[in-house]
Specification:
Layout lengths: L2 H10 L5 E6 L5 E7 L2 H10 L5 H9 L2 E6 L3 H15 L15 E4 L7 E4 L8 E3 L5 H14 L11 H5 L7 H4 L13 H16 L3 H16 L3 H21 L9 E8 L3 E10 L2 E11 L6 H15 L6 E3 L11 E3 L4 H28 L1 H15 L8 E8 L7 E8 L2 E2 L5 E4 L8 H18 L7 E5 L2 H14 L6 E5 L5 E4 L2 E6 L5 H35 L6 H11 L2 H6 L2 H20 L3
Parallel strand pairs: 7-10, 10-11, 12-16, 16-17
Antiparallel strand pairs: 1-2, 1-3, 4-5, 4-6, 7-8, 8-9, 12-13, 13-14, 13-15, 17-18, 18-19
Helix pairs in contact: 9-10, 12-13, 14-15, 17-19
């Protein structure tokens, strides 16, 4: 389809909610999106300048547009979700999860069984779940088994078959785990009362079961049936113990879904908590790989629709960290304080922990992806034009104004490259002058790299504020490198990053990985510089002290250091060890100097 045809299509799009589909020249769907207003949303792709490279490529590949008009925003959300899963377009976020999650089933039958299953059969049975953790299923089934005596056999307990005596009670009856409905020892009404209580427990409502058990316990105690009362008391303790572990918010908060998101340059992590009667009955975190630099709002809306469909949620209210468009049928709450805010914060914490765990796993299993993610994040955080694969950091050291030196440390792909570290002795500056020293070492470093045609870094980090940054910029100007290499200065407080020609510093999140890398860079530059400074001072101090020994010159000192490596070893050496290196006369002078009475 020609550009003229596309323009006509854009002009005739309706201003109503719907889903749009972009096709390439081969007729393949390459992107699906939803919109409150189809005309405005689709037109924006062709009128805006897109910063994201993939979005620019997508727009170039669009050869045809189709759309589907729907009644409401909710319908658009659901349709978009279904179409993405069906067609799996190249430029869409893919919501995939191949796991089959377990359910707890209350079977539709006379004297219903309660069991776990991974098969959802639409036969009228009740299914609770799905649960993201099989341990939760086992815990709930153990709890139910401890509280209620329900059958585990798969007999067809039709009334006629029980009356004809077809079945005999099994071991479970003799162990007290079943009341024997197969032989008519328990009536259907009594059994169904237990099933009703189990249904409420699976919904997260423990109040009715606790009340019923307490009434029973009191009755048994009044009738002097203390053994039965003790059994009921134990059941109450089991239920209260389970409830104490699961209840973490106000019990009035019921039938609510909680969603939160944390993201980085490449992925979004959406956590979902489902609440019933103040208890978290479900938790799940979904990882989504970004395709077109999607916003948190876009990812969260997609994930909410997908997760609610996957877990068959019927909750009428959701808690989220910011406004999302979910249509008229769902109440969206953005908690600000109290119990609601507490539960949202818990969800955010879960998303963050999941993200950290994934980082650790990826760092081990796929180091390249780990490095790529950190580089992409640093590019965004530091507002750079390209990923800082090669970073160099400079630090000056002139303790008490003596022996001014500087250090340059090099990081490649976020890790120290120690073979590329360099020390500098300040040559052109008299006395302690940090600004002039910085100007000298930056000039010398990049003059040499240019002369040797070595690769230049994508980022220079200057340990210091505006003054040191300005000095380094003078050298880049002199070498014609201004604008070719990104450069920033770190103030002493570390969270403050200074940029050329910008008096307002950039503040990074104290927990961000970008800040951690910069922190590591500065610490490494500081350590490396101090080490060189210390060695230089030690050598100077040693030379000064040994040169005071009559008859001992620089040549002798060098010969001794080659063998003994340090001043301490020379001072502790035996006279015959010294003689082997410098002869009897000089050895005696040195030995007597260090072993004076």
């Amino acid at each position: 389809m020609s550009q003229a045809s596309l323009d006509v299509q854009l002009k005739t799009l309706p201003e109503s909610p719907g889903v749009y589909q972009y096709f390439d020249t081969e007729g393949t769907i390459i992107y699906i999106g939803k919109a409150k207003n189809l005309k405005k949303r689709v037109s924006s792709y062709f009128t805006k300048t897109h910063e994201n490279g993939k979005t620019r490529v997508l727009v170039k590949r669009i050869a045809n547009i189709k759309h589907i008009v729907v009644q409401t925003e909710t319908d658009a959300l659901l349709l978009e979700n279904n179409l993405i899963k069906k067609h799996r377009p190249r430029y869409n976020v893919l919501l995939k999860d191949d796991k089959s999650y377990p359910w707890i089933c209350i079977k539709k039958e006379r004297f219903p069984r309660v069991f776990s299953t991974r098969r959802y059969i639409k036969d009228g049975s009740e299914y609770f779940g799905p649960y993201t953790n099989i341990k939760t299923v086992y815990t709930l089934l153990d709890l139910i088994k401890g509280l209620y005596q329900i059958r585990t056999c798969n007999y067809d307990l039709a009334e006629s078959k029980i009356e004809s005596g077809k079945y005999k009670v099994c071991l479970e009856y003799h162990l007290g785990n079943c009341k024997g409905p197969c032989e008519g020892y328990e009536d259907e009404e009594s059994y169904n009362q237990n099933i009703k209580a189990i249904r409420e427990i699976l919904k997260g409502n423990f109040k009715e079961s606790l009340g019923e058990f307490k009434t029973q316990m009191s009755q048994y105690a009044q009738d002097m049936q203390f053994e039965e009362a003790q059994k009921i008391k134990e059941k109450i303790e089991i239920l209260e113990n389970y409830q104490a572990k699961s209840t973490i918010v106000n019990p009035k908060i019921s039938n609510v879904d909680v969603f939160s998101i944390v993201s980085d340059a490449g992925h979004g992590y959406i956590n979902f908590l489902q609440l019933s009667y103040g208890s978290i009955i479900r938790s799940h975190t979904l990882e989504i790989k970004k395709k077109l630099d999607e916003t948190d709002k876009t990812l969260l809306e997609l994930a909410i629709v997908e997760i609610r469909a996957r877990f068959n949620s019927k909750s009428k209210e959701v808690y989220v960290p910011f406004k999302v468009d979910l249509g008229q049928d769902i109440k969206v709450t953005i908690p600000q304080l109290g119990d609601k805010k507490h539960i949202l914060d818990l969800s955010i914490r879960n998303a963050k922990y999941y993200r950290l765990e994934r980082f650790k796993q990826v760092k081990i299993t796929d180091p390249d992806r780990h490095a790529n993610r950190i580089m992409a994040q640093m590019k965004v955080d530091l507002r750079l034009g390209e990923e800082p694969r090669h970073i160099e950091c400079f630090d000056n050291s002139n303790i008490q104004g003596t022996n001014p030196v500087a250090a340059c440390v090099v990081f490649k792909n976020g890790k120290p490259s120690k073979k590329d570290y360099r020390h500098f002795n300040i040559k052109t500056v008299e006395g302690p002058d940090d600004f002039a020293s910085m100007e000298e070492v930056v000039f010398r470093r990049y003059k040499r790299l240019l002369e040797e045609k070595q690769p230049l870094p994508q980022l220079i980090v200057i340990d210091g504020g505006k003054g040191q940054l300005s000095s380094a910029l003078k050298s880049l100007d002199a070498l014609g490198l201004r604008g070719k290499i990104a450069i920033i200065g770190i103030a002493k407080r570390l969270e403050e990053l200074f940029y050329p020609n910008d008096s307002i510093p950039l503040y990074l999140d104290k927990k961000s990985e970008t800040l951690k890398i910069i922190q590591q860079l500065r610490n490494e530059a500081h350590r490396f510089g101090i080490e060189h400074h210390r060695n230089k001072r030690s050598k100077q101090a040693l030379n000064t002290e040994m040169e005071t020994i009559p008859g001992i010159g620089e040549k002798t000192i060098v010969e001794l250091l080659k063998v003994f490596k340090s001043a301490k070893r020379i001072s502790n050496a035996k006279i015959d060890e010294l003689e082997e290196v410098v002869g009897n006369s000089r050895a005696t002078k040195i030995y007597n100097y260090y072993h004076k009475e």
